[in-house]
Amino acid sequence: MKLIYNFGIYCYKQLVALAGTRNTKAQKLTQGQKGIFDYLEQNVNPQGGYLWIHASSLGEFEQGRPLIETLKKHRPDTQILLTFFSPSGYEVRKNYPGADLVCYLPFDLPGNVRRFLDLTKPKKAIFIKYEFWGNYLNELKQRNIPTYIISAIFRPKQIFFRAYGGYFRRILRNFTHLYIQNETSRRLLADIGITNVTIVGDTRFDRVKDIQLSAKELPLVEQFSQGKKTIIAGSSWPKDEEFIIDYFNRKNEIKLIIAPHEIHESHLQFIEKLSKRKTVRYTQATAAEVAACDCLIVDCFGLLSSIYRYGTIAYVGGGFGAGIHNIAEAAVYGLPVIFGPNHRRFKEAHELIACGGGFAINHGDEFIAIADKLLSNPQLLASTSEKAGSYIATNTGATKRILKDLFGIDE
Description:
seven-stranded parallel β-sheet, 48% helix
């Protein structure tokens, strides 16, 4: 099985290189992979001793970020090696000041793995949520390097729990300890004989709480909302925008802030054409202009997590595509959150629905019904807002538990 696994990784590497002739993301990954060992040889501390933290992409990095920053605060001499597999993580955080080294993770082939570990000599390894690379985990175990996974979540359909998943079950046994999100994951792991686990929850909640506490003041957004009922559509896609803007066009008493997932010119023009009311782009706005407009289009990145504070209710996009974006960023401000049908893989979506702070829709008519109920009933709005905020508050603390367990840090 190991030979088949290695052959699969090799083929994947070749397919990425082939895709790179047409796909920008694949091209960046291929180019980034070529420079890893040169970067490490020029920058690594020859003595090693790194705490190696691996995040597949930007979302996983954000889950691990509270741990990195709290650890650096208490143990500033800790050398941190941060790796990514996806360009969407590396390209955004390659200059992250909280890490001493930042690079792509070499493809999981035996020669790459040995060379990577020989160069960096990590004293501990932490994987965030996903990423179960067989050769890395096997080699870390053979070298007696303590290896952990945090914020992990498991589902019955994963290969570990299939009859043919024996090789992958053995990979899981290489972890020194698994810090998992919920009881379902614990039971699944127990059924395959893995009991070195602790349920601590999801460090993502700690991250969104940190973001809330350090949220930017945005005078233009405050001037725009002026205390009026405001819908915030975060990380929206065209399918989301069609029914949201249609609703907004017929509701003169509300305002709308759209922070689309993609901000290229054609998409911005698409939004502007849909709106029958006055719109303005954030980067082109003045205080006088936003006060006179009904729809504010956020045509830049990095503001959405702070913008939610100015809203009344939130719609988070992606649920009519690959999957919903970060709903916790909105809920932390006590905003009822509406999202599309593709939320099955997201524990926080199920739990927000269950507690009454979140609402899933299957089509635009359902969005209209829910938005109408919330915006026309102050008591219901207050109740759902309180439930959304309380849900986040009661789920924070995973980072503290992990830091105390692994590093003896007790804040």
